[in-house]
UniProtKB/TrEMBL annotation:
Belongs to the DnaX/STICHEL family. It comes from the Bacteria. This is DNA polymerase III subunit gamma/tau. It comes from candidate division WOR-1 bacterium RIFCSPLOWO2_02_FULL_46_20. The gene is dnaX. SMART domains: AAA. It catalyses: DNA(n) + a 2'-deoxyribonucleoside 5'-triphosphate = DNA(n+1) + diphosphate. DNA polymerase III contains a core (composed of alpha, epsilon and theta chains) that associates with a tau subunit. This core dimerizes to form the POLIII' complex. PolIII' associates with the gamma complex (composed of gamma, delta, delta', psi and chi chains) and with the beta chain to form the complete DNA polymerase III complex.
Length: 487
């Protein structure tokens, strides 16, 4: 027997099976019970939300030997034929595949003949917005004077493209995206009946990715079974989708808060491993920050996440200001657009993320000691360094952002008797002094000086001691004993 996709196999066969469209089911059931059926329905809504399934169920409800009934038997000849797709009374036209000119013409010819078996002829026109203007005109004429035994179901994913002349002649039913919980439950049922073992986290991710489309959710489940057999784990889903797993996304979030550049670049590298595209990683990041945004402004429940995931998002959202989250989303969305034409997508992502950090790291205006207060010897070279200091800073910035941030907090003070350039930091800024003296940063500064001044000069840092303070801070005490206090 040839393989039947899960979506087809488990497609809803009666009104009560339909997932997530309670209002529509109620409307149609009542219309049948009260004999108030419309001649034309317009089913609008995203793909995979049950439009065609509902149309077929309606056809069975109308043509069942026990009908018209809201509870068709499903076993009589008429029901069976419709289920199998053999019924001559149910005519399905896919406007997307051939734009419908011949079909609509034929429809107009045939519509005059009453149904041979059953009571109604049901015309289901899928993706009706794709019809050509000629086909629309032909359809319109039919809709204006439909024979009593016809019911039209026009289905569309793009309501705004359906001409008003058509939609105004139909009763419109809007199919909403199916709720995450409902998709999860249905997947669980299908998995149970098929004998698949699937963990909760995997189930939640499939449902989230499906974005309200049951068809997408079941297709994904199908692919997962081919990919990993009957036992499906969260990691299988991650690998198949090529999506970034939640650990990675939260790590990105933390790194942005902490402005950890090295870690950020590592994460990008990690994100791109296993064949993920830069675009995919960027989209996942945008989605993550969108989640943070919703949680931050208190509309997190629309995300329909598991309680654990929600709690984790909330925790991370607290580390961000709302402005920062929006800034990240804007920057990443722009990067997503840019990388469509840029040959080096990864570079675009890296720059976008680094710029976000840089904005955070660029020091705010810090009050500085006036030059006159400081006891500095000013040989010619020192004067030269001082006058070119902004250029030196710029050069360091290109080599190391961390080195730059620390250097920015210091000033060139003197060239000491060892021929070293002394860079002074304000009291309490020992952290910056120490970071500047790390080999990598020190080298970068020395190279920069060489580039700008044309002379190799070593550097060392000192931290000021505020003499007006009567009690010394721990930092100042440490500096004092290191003998690096300016006097
Ligand atoms: Zn029946």
């Amino acid at each position: 027997m040839s393989y039947i996709s899960l979506y087809r196999k488990w497609r809803s066969q009666n009104f009560d099976d339909l997932v997530g469209q309670a209002a529509i089911v109620k409307t149609l059931k009542n219309a049948i019970k009260n004999d108030r059926l419309a001649h034309a329905y317009l089913f609008s809504g995203p793909r995979g939300t049950g439009k065609t399934s509902t149309a077929r169920i309606l056809a069975k409800a109308l043509n069942c030997e026990n009908g018209p009934t809201a509870k068709h038997c499903g076993t009589c000849q008429n029901c069976e034929k419709i289920t199998r797709g053999y019924s001559v009374n149910v005519i399905e036209i896919d406007a997307a595949s051939n734009r419908g000119i011949d079909e609509i013409r034929e429809l107009r010819e045939r519509i005059r003949y009453a149904p041979v078996e059953g009571r109604y002829k049901v015309y289901i026109i899928d993706e009706v917005h794709m019809l050509t203007p000629e086909a629309f005109n032909a359809l319109l004429k039919t809709l204006e004077e439909p024979p009593s035994y016809t019911v039209f179901v026009l289905a569309t994913t793009e309501l705004q493209k359906v001409p008003l002349t058509i939609s105004s002649r139909c009763q419109r039913l809007d199919f909403g995206r199916i709720k995450l919980k409902e998709i999860e439950e249905h997947l669980m049922q299908v998995a149970g009946k098929e004998g698949f073992a699937i963990d909760e986290k995997a189930l939640n991710l499939i449902a989230r990715v499906a974005e309200g489309s049951m068809r997408d959710a079941l297709s994904l489940l199908d692919q997962l079974v081919s990919f990993s057999g009957h036992k499906i784990s969260y990691d299988n889903v991650i690998t198949l989708l090529g999506t970034a797993d939640e650990e990675l996304l939260f790590a990105f979030g933390d790194t942005v808060v902490e402005s950890d550049i090295v870690k950020l670049l590592e994460l990008i590298k990690k994100g791109l491993e296993e064949g993920r595209s830069t675009l995919q990683v960027t989209r996942d990041l945008v989605a993550h920050f969108r989640n943070l945004l919703h949680v931050k402004v208190g509309s997190g429940e629309i995300l329909e996440l598991t309680a654990d995931y929600f709690a984790r998002l909330k925790q991370q959202a607290e580390r961000f200001s709302l402005e920062k989250i929006m800034e990240v989303i804007r920057a990443l969305s722009k990067a997503e657009l840019d990388m469509r034409w840029h040959p080096h997508g990864r570079l675009v992502l890296e720059v976008a993320l680094l710029e976000l950090l840089e904005v955070r790291q660029a020091p705010m205006a810090v009050p500085r000691l006036t030059r006159d207060d400081l006891p500095v010897a000013i040989p010619e070279r020192l004067a030269q360094i001082k006058s070119r200091w902004p250029d030196i800073l710029e050069s360091v910035k290109k080599k190391t952002l961390f080195g730059y941030v620390s250097l920015h907090e210091g000033d060139p003070r003197e060239i000491n008797n060892k021929g070293k350039l002394v860079i002074g930091f304000r009291r309490g800024y020992v952290f910056h002094k120490e970071r500047l003296e790390e080999v990598k940063n020190k080298q970068a500064v020395e190279e920069a000086i060489n580039e700008i001044i044309g002379e190799k000069i070593a550097i060392e840092g000192v931290v000021d001691n505020d003499k007006k303070e009567t009690t010394l801070s721990a930092h100042a005490v440490a500096d004092f004993f290191e003998g690096k206090v300016l006097t």
